[in-house]
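Record format v2
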Amino acid sequence: MEAVKQQIQAREEPVVPTSGSTRAAGQRGEIVIAGLGKVYESKKSRFAALSDIDLSIGSNEFVTVVGPSGCGKSTLLRIVAGLDEQTDGSVTLDGNEVIGPGAERGMVFQGYTLFPWLTVRENIEYGPKLQGISTLERRAISNYFLKVIKLESFAAAYPKQLSGGMKQRVAIARALANRPKVLLMDEPFGALDAQTKLDMQEMLLEVWEKEKTTVLFITHDIEEAIFLSQRIVVMGANPGRILKTFDVKLPAQRTPEVREMPAFLALRRELGQLLKH
Amino acid sequence: MNAPRRRKPHRFQIFKEIGGRPFAFTAGLSFVLMLALWAVLSYTKAVNPVFLPTPSQVMAEMTKQLSSGEYWNFIGISVFRVSAGFVLACIVGIPLGIFAGTFKYAEALVEPPMEFIRYMPAVAFIPLIMVWAGIGEWAKILLIFIGCFFQLVLMVADNTRRVSADLLQASFTLGAGRWKAIETVLIPAIQPQLMNTLRLILGWAWTYLVVAELVAANSGLGYAIMKAQRFLNTDQIFVGIIVIGLLGLISDRIFAFLNRRLFPWA
């Protein structure tokens, strides 16, 4: 009886410890990308992976970048993450220039990057542990996120025991458990089957509703981009550049029915035309 | 009426699993075949009995030796030498290998000389070792150390380099610095492979032990083999070789067991 009551309370108001958080009050997670360029140069050739990228992403905004393969969208994300270096321009987060990876910019990769020697719970607690958060608080954080991604019963499992979709759910929880200001996602659902992909998209939006963090999401799936985001950036290749930006005028609450709305279909057609060339 | 002809797939399919029982049966069969060949050659006296004792002779000799305290002392001292040389090589070699696998500067500093020394036969160091360390315990331990150390460093460095860069980058985006990444990603990630490397190296340690004991020793299994050779006691030589083989097999199985036990996630 007592346990049930506690459970109900927990559902109504998930208690998430905030001490040690990288997302302190007043910090907003605004990304400004200005004049960004990336050139790969060898003795014989010169290849512009990115050229003159300008993009501002507001606090708690969900922005998707779509484009054909080779348009440099992954490179763009990796530069924002601090994993690659630009040759031109700058990236700032809340006014501070990005120079290398950091906990305030969490990332979910396309491939499976859970630490195989850690259990699901330990994977989620990895970032908080690095921050020196106490065992008890870490436990509260992982409990909360295990509930959010609906994998409570897999807390003690190792990644090899999980399906692809489950692994990516844990990867999202692991990134969010660190309370990053920005969540960077590099085609996280690219390797999943169609139905799992749709489920994951809905789950991601649910988590985003709760966690309210800025999201920069890379995909080559147009419908995924429309369903998820508030704004879509379309990139073109050779050199990698921004072709056009679209505001997604759909209800804030994205239910599966949104996919059949005229606005959704019209945008899909327009994006499809743009990406054809 | 012609029933569709069903052709049975061939028993030997490339890479195809055959299941635990057929595998164990075939493995047992290969031992039986070896033993049978030995028995035929020795009991029929096709080979001079002085050179090739019969299995029953060797079994009798083995029982005799294993019931004597001296032989167990020999086993003890040999196990001690192998362990000492092997553990020393691990203590110095594993950190150095991880270091060389992690940083390119360390690789440049450590690996080229190691690659060079690795091709020098450890056995060729024996005269030098005798000059340096005499013919005491240290000489044997040093030879085993030299035989294991250089290979170990190179293999550990290689294990380290094989860790997925994605895992490292994930740890960076979760707030890990370089040293934390080494501690919390590189070192846990290489452990299962490291155990396999150690298994291999331990096998070599046994080889170098015998070499060391053949040259200068008055105790140990290698010495027992050497002494038996002097008196043409081939059955005793066989006992020595089989005992060393069994010891190697036991240590190998222990490693395999630990690997499954310690790394259930792999």
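The interface with chain B takes residues 22, 81-83, 100-103, 105-107, 109, 111, 113, 115-118, 126-127, 130-131, 158-160, 174-175, 178, 184 of chain A (CB under 8 Å).
Helices of chain A lie at 2-12, 73-81, 120-130, 135-148, 164-177, 194-211, 222-228, 262-276.
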